[in-house]
Amino acid sequence: MTQISFKHISKVYDDHNGTVKEALRDINLSATENVTTAVVGKSGSGKSTLLQLINGLERPSRGTIYVFGQQIDYEQLPNLRRRIGYAVQGTGLFPHLSVGENITLLAVLDGWDKERIKGRVEMLMNLVGLPLEYARRYPHQLSGGEQQRVGLCRAMMLNPRIFLLDEPFGALDPITRSEIHEHFIHLQQSEARTIILVTHDLQEALKLAKEMIILNDGKVEQTGTCTEILRKPATDFVKSFLRSQLGNRPRRKR
Amino acid sequence: MTKFTTRSLCTFLLLVWTSGVADPGTVFAPDSAGGAAGKSRTIIVGCKHFTEGYILGEIIAQILEDRGYHVERKFGLGGTLICFDALRNGDIDIYPEYSGTITQAILKLDDTTSYPTVQQMLIRDFGLELLGPFGFNNTYAIAVTPSLAERLQLNTVSDLARFPKLRLGFSYEFLNRHDGWPGLARTYRLPGRPVGIEHGLAYQALRENDLDVTDVYTTDGDIDKYGLVLLKDDKEYFPRYLGAPLLRRGLSEGVKRVLGELAGKISEKEMQSLNASVLIENKTFREVAQEFLRAKDLLLSVRTSSEESKWTTMLHRTATHIKLTVTALIAAMAIAIPLGVLVYRLRTIAKPVIYFTGLLQTIPSIALLAFMIPLLGIGVTPAIVALFLYALLPILRNTSSALFSIDPILKKISVGMGLTTWQQLRHIEIPLAAPTILAGIKTAAVINVGTATLAAFIGAGGLGEPIVTGLALNDTSLILEGAVPAALLAIVTEFIFESIEKFLIPKHLLQQRVS
């Protein structure tokens, strides 16, 4: 049971100048279990905020969030977060730890025995196509795409039922990105889990996700499966968003 | 691998530390088990840091040792008030002082007060006992070079008033005393603006013609050495400075009786020659004091005091120096690193804490050492506290700024992946900050090795001891005896820290920091 749902969620930021910015307004939604849901929208639409509400990096100003079917207990965040994988743009690998240490950090802290750790690391590295001897190297000795795959392995180490990705492939070149996409799909096929993927790239969303949440200016414009949304855009915004990202490709803004 | 090297490093540091722990006092105390009742307690003899002070201190120490007392020497203390406070606090038991200094600088009386009156007032106001004088009057005199005296026809202090352009350089103590420059200038209506100069350096400055006039003591051995002309005090301005042992109350009658034997034994001429044998013949204080006591038939036992070899002494000094530095450094690390973490976690206290430790850093080292005396007395403890305070800022600032500058994405990830606050600190933040923290510790260590040389001014020993003595004697080779090992120690410190870095920190993180 990974059930994630938002009930009347609003998030207000207090600017230092005294102005108040409303990042999310009265959001109600729930994510389907064991599929990938992409959260898409322009930058500043509140995508990252929505994602960070799920693992408690942000707290809602109003409303209630349920994760694993329960209201978030803000006193017990580390416990909750260990059950949720998390990856962000850039690799976020710790430079002072070797690749192996990066991947196994959480398992070591959780007191896994050596055999179990070894088995899990080998399985994950094979799954994303990383040679096992890379475990002894440091992150800076790997290419960007390889580092990204290490990041996926690290997030998957404890086999979390929920996986949050915040524009994880944004900084990669197109060829590397499409390679990573293959590994990602492969990973999801072998260990299905509930994945929330934040991206500004509609192509990526369509390729990796089964369902979509389209955000605009802090509000949900439309939710549903990708095919539904493509066939029946609910609002004018969704229509023009789809057209701008898919229709006239040369004029697409990055 | 890293765990092993950390442990062996700790063992190494511990060894260095404990090897220095041997009380520096015992280094100089010959094994004189008198055994007589009441003699088991150690008598601590102090002195100010100038030649005559050392000689008189050594004479006092040796005659007591000869009679079976166990003596600890705390020589070369910073000045009159440091010695006097140390005596009142009971940090030292005896030091040689001068009647004029007591009336002027301590009792603040005029200089006509009689010797017995001074003795009574010391007992009444401070509980201190001034024994009978050694015999000589070591007063201030104004000195010029013979060539200048001849050229300008200078004979008396009054003559100086005719030459307002003369370059005057006086010791700091003389400049600031009631019976020093201010009164002298008033009495003789002297023009001119004197500069302050360390007494030991003034003679050299006169010889090199960087200075025309300075203050000397009438028993200075340098007067003969440099052939200086003393100007006659024609208005009888300078008071009498009769040298005598000044004692803490409560010392046994036996001690007083032994020191009483010294009364009237040293004339001005004799004191000058004792000073000269140190300055010109390069004898040690110990030798000079022993020859004097022997010549006056004041030594009862035939045992000669055991003289240490130069190398052993240097080794002991270095050990003391390392002990001072390492103890202060470890204490500073224990406080400054957690404080740096606290500053990072509670940003509101960041500025006040860093400003405060920065303020500590701006206090001149010698002043900080002087502040320590009323609180902690003299010796090793106040020196370690002062060094500890100096080491705080570099470690604290590097710790907190290294933590503040960690890549925010890495922080976000370490929180988001579910590490507890302690785990974030232990596994991510501290290791990432380690290169910079280590650099801060290295800076603190090198600063401490240098600053610790000043600790000799408050009787803490170490490599500063020969430097302080050398300054008093204007003896360059003696200064180098402390300065060279101190410099080597600083280099070794750098080297040790570089090795620690290599063991503890992955190479690519170091390169990142340097670039």
Task: Explain how this protein is built.
The complex is a heterodimer of chains A (254) and B (515). Chain A is α/β, with parallel strands linked by helices and 254 residues long. Chain A has helices at residues 47-54, 77-82, 99-109, 114-127, 144-156, 174-190, 202-208, 226-231, 236-247, and strands spanning 4-14, 20-31, 36-40, 62-67, 70-71, 84-88, 162-166, 194-199, 211-216, 219-225. Chain A is built from nine helices and ten strands. Chain A has a six-stranded mixed β-sheet with strand order 6-7-8-3-9-10, with helices on both faces. A four-stranded antiparallel β-sheet of chain A has the order 2-1-4-5, with helices on one face. In chain A, helix 3 runs parallel beside helix 5 and helix 5 runs parallel beside helix 6. The longest helix of chain A has 17 residues, at 174-190. By secondary structure, chain B is mainly alpha-helical. In chain B, 60% of the residues lie in helices and 9% in strands. Chain B has 23 helices and ten strands. Chain B has helices at residues 2-21, 24-28, 51-66, 80-89, 99-106, 115-126, 146-152, 172-176, 181-188, 199-207, 222-226, 253-260, 268-279, 285-295, 310-345, 350-362, 365-376, 380-404, 408-416, 421-451, 464-473, 476-504, 507-514, and strands spanning 42-48, 70-77, 94-98, 128-130, 140-144, 169-170, 195-196, 213-217, 229-231, 243-248. In chain B, the strands form four sheets. Chain B has a three-stranded antiparallel β-sheet with strand order 3-10-4. In chain B, strand 1 (42-48), helix 3 and strand 2 (70-77) form a beta-alpha-beta unit. In chain B, helix 15 (310-345) packs across helix 18 (380-404) and helix 21 runs antiparallel to helix 22. The radius of gyration of chain B is 27 Å and the shape is elongated. At the A-B interface, helix 2, strand 6 and helix 3 of A face helix 19, helix 20 and helix 23 of B.
